[in-house]
Amino acid sequence: MPMAIFFILWRMKKRKIPLSELGSLEIQRKPIFLSIFLLAAFLLLEELYFYVLGIEMPESFIEFMLAEPILLGFISVVVVAPIIEEFLFRGFLYSQLRRSFLRDWGAMAVSSLVWTAIHFQYEVGILFFLFLFGLFLGYFRIKYNSLLIPIALHAVNNLLSFLVIIYFP
Q1: 24 in Cβ contact with 148 (< 8 Å)
Q2: Is 54 left (phi over 0), alpha (psi -120 to 50) or beta?
Q3: Are 82 and 162 in contact (CB under 8 A)?
Q4: Which end of the chain is less packed: N or C, by CB atoms within 10 Å?
Q5: According to DSSP H, which parts of the chain are helical?
Q6: 24 — phi, psi (to 5°)?
Q7: What are phi and psi of 146, to 5 degrees?
């Protein structure tokens, strides 16, 4: 992943694309509070969806999270994955696709679909909700031209999953 980021930064420099096209990393107080409130509602909807369809977290993901040292799983899932994935998909890929005929929401749909596809270890029911989550994150990326909000929401989502797996296996 770090090599992918270096490659992307190099390509952006070569194509003379400003880093600002990736989205702002400034803290915006009002959108952060709104986004966390909406994330809570989204996660309740997700829980209901999983309950109704009888979907459970994949055993391989649970084993990964519980593997020793747990701190390594925490860092990779709660810190590294949100930063790198949001930088790549709702930052770089979205910023490039929106320049095409796709515009904002078409670019967000495609980048969310590609982001969903990298989570191939999950069953289709989970992938469907991941795609919706990608669009949810994309909404804040578009509305506030912010990459920090999707990173924070992605991290909070993963933190909650991590805590559920650790404390309610």
Answers
A1: yes
A2: left
A3: no
A4: C
A5: 2-14, 29-53, 59-66, 70-74, 81-85, 94-97, 103-117, 124-144, 148-167
A6: -75, 150
A7: -120, 135
pLDDT > 90 in the chain, percent:
63
Contact 121, 58 (CB under 8 A): yes
**pLDDT at residue number 129:** 94
Query: Cβ neighbours of residue 111 under 8 Å, at least 6 residues apart?
Result: 89, 90, 93, 94, 97, 134, 138
pLDDT digits (tens, 9 = 90+) for 16-25: 888 888 888 8
In the chain, how long is the greatest CA-to-CA distance?
49
CA distance 8 to 2: 10
In this prediction, residue 112 has a pLDDT band, given cuts at 50, 70 and 90, of: very high
pLDDT at res. 94: 95
Per-residue pLDDT at 39? 96
Distance CA 34, CA 136 (A): 13
Q: What is the mean pLDDT of residues 69-82?
A: 92
